[in-house]
Amino acid sequence: MDSALDTQTNQPDTADLHDWDRTHQLHPWAAMDDWRGYDHMMVDSAKGIYLWDASGKRFIDGPGGMWCVQIGYGRQEMADAIAAQVMTLPYTSPWTTVTEPSAILAKKIADMAPGDLNNVFFTTGGSTAVDTAIRTVHFMNNRLGRPDKKIVIAREKGYHGSTYLASSVTGKERDKSRFDVESRLVRFLPDVNPYRRRDGQSVQDWCDEKVADLENMIAEVGAENIGAFIAEPILCSGGVIVPPEGYHKRTHEICRAHDILYISDEVVTGFGRLGHWFASQEVFGITPDIITCAKGLTSGYLPLGACIISDAVMERMTDPDDSVLFANGYTYSAHPVCCIAALKNIEIIENEGLLEHVREVAPHFQARLQALRKFDIVGDVRGMGLLGCIEGSARTLAGERRLGAMLDEACEEMGLLVRPLINMAVFSPPLIITRAEIDEMFDILERALEQVQAQLS
Ligand code: PLP
Predict the structure, then answer these.
(1) Closest CA to 298 of 95, 126, 63, 53
(2) d(CA 339, ligand 1 centre) in Å
(3) What's the gap in Å between 271 CA and the centre of ligand 1?
(4) Which of these, 87, 65, 14, lies nearest to 417 by C-alpha position?
(5) What is the pTM of this model?
(6) Which keywords does UniProt give here (predicted)?
(7) Is 166 within 8 Å of 130 (Cβ atoms)?
(8) For a substitution probing ligand 1, which of 267, 290, 307, 387 has the most ligand atoms within 8 Å of its CB?
């Protein structure tokens, strides 16, 4: 194994590393019944859309890391930009100073974001961007003398992060089990998955029902108690749930009518996943009050997130006669090295025309995805842009094991990584993926589905 670490002597072997990992490293989302008994894949290196494990086996990175590696791996120009910034200025206080990278990046993001979303608060990732968004809503309503207007309406199956506030508005039960959350702060609407509509119900009728759910909840809780509605444009880690046509526009209008701020969580959908910098306006036709983003902002090369706030909200938070601090921040807000990584990432996306590329290859990606319906173990497939999900049919729910795990195992054997989610598998490959590589990925998926179907029959 080649390592970037210069340990010179006693280079550990893979068995040592697995041992130290199992003994000392607690991974995110660890299964607590057996967290020491499980060997994670030891990833050794990566280039383009591929990863190599410690044995030298190559895999297509189907999930693009965790929905984040837009420009692909092994970019020399990214390494050079990061190294140069480390040598020029690796850190400075975001409270009392500003740097060239953060000022340029703030301007760039404000230019990309829709409408009057011109104010960028840098965070350490997606969860802290969501925290900042909710704290902004609270700060604004306290400043406006509306201390009760604080409740956040969120959606079941939505994922917004792992900090206390972000996990409180997360609607995935699995992500909250045995943890406490701030439940007084949040109300959940049912998720908006047309696959779950009743037999014979039209998608339009289903959409009307889901929009009415929001109206009913506002009537029940009282708009004077509700500060914000938070939604992912496509509900991603809840299973790539694409809402019915018009859902976002209609819910956005309802929020506007009740002075409820609309937070669009674009942590996954931002930075090119759907072929645009942001999906809210370009794909779904709404200008939210706040957008949160992270992941694709740096393509995962370094951690950075942002909470983008409208001028209108900023105006309502500002009071010339009352100089209260907006005391929200992180030591690593606007970190200059992370901001340089984001600027280089944006430059690569622009120079290589990756937004246009996604718009060009996405129809082929989605057509190959739809073709997987021919397997009778597949209940639903759905997606948009370079996002996709396969959900198992009732047949895959009969035994002990779910489609996600079975497909994951079969694909891994064949050189493709997927992200299993109970009875589903999801994909968000690097945006640089070519048409031929999309075919390579779906050819493997088809062979893996054939194998799993044979196992289940
Ligand atoms: N919001 C969404 C929509 C996400 O998918 C995620 C992470 O997957 C987050 C927020 C949290 O981001 P992070 O893990 O960077 O804190």
Answers:
(1) 126
(2) 18
(3) 14
(4) 65
(5) 0.97
(6) Aminotransferase, Pyridoxal phosphate, Transferase
(7) yes
(8) 267
Ligand 1, atom 1, lies closest to the CA of 160
- For residue 8, pLDDT beyond 60: no
The answer to whether 232 touches 248, Cβ cutoff 8 Å, is no
Query: Counting atoms of ligand 1 from 1, which one is nearest the CA of 305?
Result: 15
Dihedral angle computed from the Cα positions of residues 111, 112, 115 and 119, in that order, rounded to the nearest 10 degrees: -60
Write out the two tokens for 188.
């959940």
Decide: 291 in ligand 1 pocket, CB within 6 A.
no
What the block records as the tokens of 171 is: 């609607």
| Substitution site in 128, 159, 174, 191 for ligand 1 pocket (most atoms within 8 Å of beta carbon) | 159
For the Cβ of 130 lying below 6 angstroms from any atom of ligand 1, the answer is yes
Q: Show the tokens assigned to 86.
A: 């480390």
DSSP letters of 361-396?
HHHHHHHHHHGGGGSTTEEEEEEETTEEEEEE-GGG
Residue 98 phi, psi (nearest 5): -135, 155
Q: Helix (H, G, I), strand (E, B), or coil: what is residue 47?
A: strand
Nearest to 135 by CA among 307, 335, 20: 307
Q: Extract the tokens encoding 115.
A: 């409408």
Which residue in 392, 396, 379, 228 sits closest to 313, CA to CA?
A: 228
What's the CA-to-centroid distance between 29 and ligand 1, angstroms? 13
Length, in residues, of the chain = 457
Going by C-alpha positions, the residue among 70, 80, 79 that lies closest to residue 353 is: 70
For residue 134 and ligand 1, the question of a CB distance below 6 A is answered with no
Kindly state if the Cβ of 267 falls inside 6 Å of ligand 1: yes
ipTM over 0.95: yes
Tokens of 73: 């791996």
